[in-house]
Automatic annotation (TrEMBL):
InterPro entries: MFS_trans_sf, POT_fam. CDD domains: MFS_NPF1_2 (cd17416). One of its GO terms (cellular component) is membrane. SUPFAM superfamilies: MFS general substrate transporter. This is Protein NRT1/ PTR FAMILY 1.2 isoform C. GO terms for molecular function: transmembrane transporter activity.
Length: 526
């Protein structure tokens, strides 16, 4: 992913606006399909089969992508991407997009299922240290994720830049082959939990039944007139979003189709109070969820293009790969989170009376401000880079290396890392505290959906900016020749939108009030 914008620009001759939109769409598809993969595994196929399908889909997609680098006939040909050349025949583009689609399907199947499938193997052990073993598994799982991210942003990117796309795409395909085969070899030893029920199905059922019962009148707050789960503490639905309460009204016709334990045999005709309240809790947090969408809009592809034109020597003759700068953000995040947890939280507990540190909403707001600062810094640095390129006579040479150190890009990624450390973690925690414990796994799904929405917004924004700013034959802000374009204006636009989004967050935060279970903490913060 980090270097893909260079491959699309140089080998597929795509304008950077189109290439960036393609990458945004590709990433969004992977995130959305993660929700579909979770639904498919929970409701129908089970985790093993979904992971197996995803593994071989990823392998096929990576292999096809590698083939586009191996055979010149599978790519368009032109002397330079700066000339007016076609970005490939329909067949060539179809092969590229098909490979990306298969990789997205693979990611959508593997990401949501792999951690739970591993936990399934450990939960069958009836030993006293099972809980400790499970904690250790989760720690090592996320450690492996972090290590793989570092390898992807450093080793793989370095190989692509210095050894070419043939090896750069071939190595991930080979690793995916080893992964898929090793996973299948474990088939005789796996515990495979049968699929049961999905929360997504429950939400749809509540909506359907509420529509069916839309003509009914809501009864008084009498628990006898509502269906409850036999072990639920919820007796009557809340007054908010009352239209959904009609889904759990007892209807005489449905009583006869109830099971002996009191549950309804046809969930598409009758829902319980707990199901209705689960959907309500999801809908209540959507406004706060929406405040993070714009913050998540990435600028990685543009930063790669900027770094590619700057002096990337760090020490001796070693050059930092242009696609490795997200590694700075990852490392910053990895440092800030433990520092906050181990140093700031005790200090806040001691001097401010906040035993758990800042509340979720406070940290979300801090993160938004840091991201706005990062975008503003990007605008300033790009202005400096563009001016330097023009002054040094490289206005028409977008691949020329200018006399400006790539270290100027470090501050914006550090600020982005700090923003991610505060905002992303706080958002997941906020989702977790505001939804029922039975939906706790859905908190991460909401975050994944937010990433998908951010990539869709990013793609639309790039397309709009490119079309609007190129009206009348003007040079687009997001021109393929970034020395003639105005990425600095684009970053400034993102900064302004980020500040507007922050004001929107403040309004939502005030309207929402303290989240459940944190009212005392909120009072202390005030």
């Amino acid at each position: 992913m980090p270097n893909m914008i260079l491959y699309l620009r140089d080998d597929y001759l795509m304008p950077i606006a189109k290439g960036t939109s393609v990458i945004y769409t590709w990433t969004a598809a992977s995130d959305v399909l993660s929700l579909f993969g979770a639904f498919l595994s929970d409701s129908y196929l089970g985790r093993f089969l979904v992971i197996a399908i995803g593994s071989f889909s990823s392998l096929l997609g990576l292999t096809m992508l590698w083939l586009t680098a191996m055979f010149p006939d599978l790519k368009p040909s032109c002397e330079s991407y700066m000339l007016d050349c076609n970005s490939g025949t329909p067949a060539q583009q179809a092969l590229l997009f098909l490979s990306m689609g298969l990789i997205s399907i693979g990611a959508g199947c593997v990401r949501p299922c792999s951690i739970a499938f591993g936990a399934d193997q450990l939960n069958i052990k009836e030993r006293s240290n099972d809980e400790k073993l499970l904690d250790s598994y989760f720690n090592w799982y996320y450690t492996s994720i972090a290590i793989s991210t570092v390898i992807a942003l450093s080793v793989i990117v370095y190989i692509q830049e210095n050894l070419g796309w043939k090896i750069g795409f071939g190595l991930p395909a080979l690793l995916m082959f080893i992964s898929a085969v090793s996973f299948i070899l474990g088939l005789p030893f796996y515990v495979k939990v049968k699929p049961s029920h999905s929360l997504l199905t429950t939400f749809v059922q509540v909506a359907v039944v509420a529509v069916k019962n839309r003509k009914l009148s809501l009864p008084d707050s009498n628990f006898v007139q509502y269906y409850q789960d036999h072990d639920s503490e919820l007796m009557v639905p809340t007054d908010s979003l009352r239209c959904l309460n009609k889904a759990c009204i007892k209807i005489p016709e449905t009583v006869s189709i109830s099971n002996p334990d009191g549950s309804v045999s046809d969930p598409w005709s009758q829902c319980t109070v707990e199901q209705v309240e689960s959907l309500k809790s999801l809908l209540r947090i959507l406004p706060m969820w929406s405040t993070g969408v714009l913050m998540m809009v990435s600028q990685g592809s543009f930063s790669t293009l900027q770094a590619n034109t700057m002096d990337r020597r760090l020490f001796g003759n070693f050059k930092m790969p242009a696609g490795s700068f997200n590694l700075i953000m990852v490392l910053t995040l990895s440092i800030v989170i433990p520092l906050y947890d181990r140093i700031m939280v005790p200090l806040l507990a001691k001097y401010r009376g906040l035993p758990r540190g800042f509340g979720c909403k406070t940290r979300i707001g801090i993160g938004l401000l840091f991201v706005c600062s990062a975008k503003a810094t990007s605008a300033v640095v790009e202005t400096m880079r563009r001016n330097a390129a023009i002054e040094q006579g490289f206005e028409d040479q977008p691949n020329a290396v200018i006399d400006m150190s790539v270290l100027w890009l470090f501050p914006e990624f550090v600020l982005l890392g700090i923003g991610e450390a505060f905002n992303s973690v706080a958002q997941v925690e906020f989702f977790y505290t505001c939804i029922p414990k039975t939906m706790s796994s859905f908190a991460m799904a909401l975050f994944t959906l937010e990433l998908a929405a951010a990539n869709v917004v990013g793609s639309v924004l790039v397309s709009i900016v490119d079309k609007v700013t190129s009206v009348g034959g003007n040079e687009s802000w997001i021109a393929t020749n970034i020395n003639r374009g105005h990425l600095n204006y684009y970053y400034a636009l993102l900064t302004c939108l980020g500040l507007i989004n922050y004001l929107y967050f403040l309004a939502i935060s005030l309207a929402y009030g303290p989240p459940p279970g944190q009212k005392l903490e909120a009072r202390r913060e005030i």
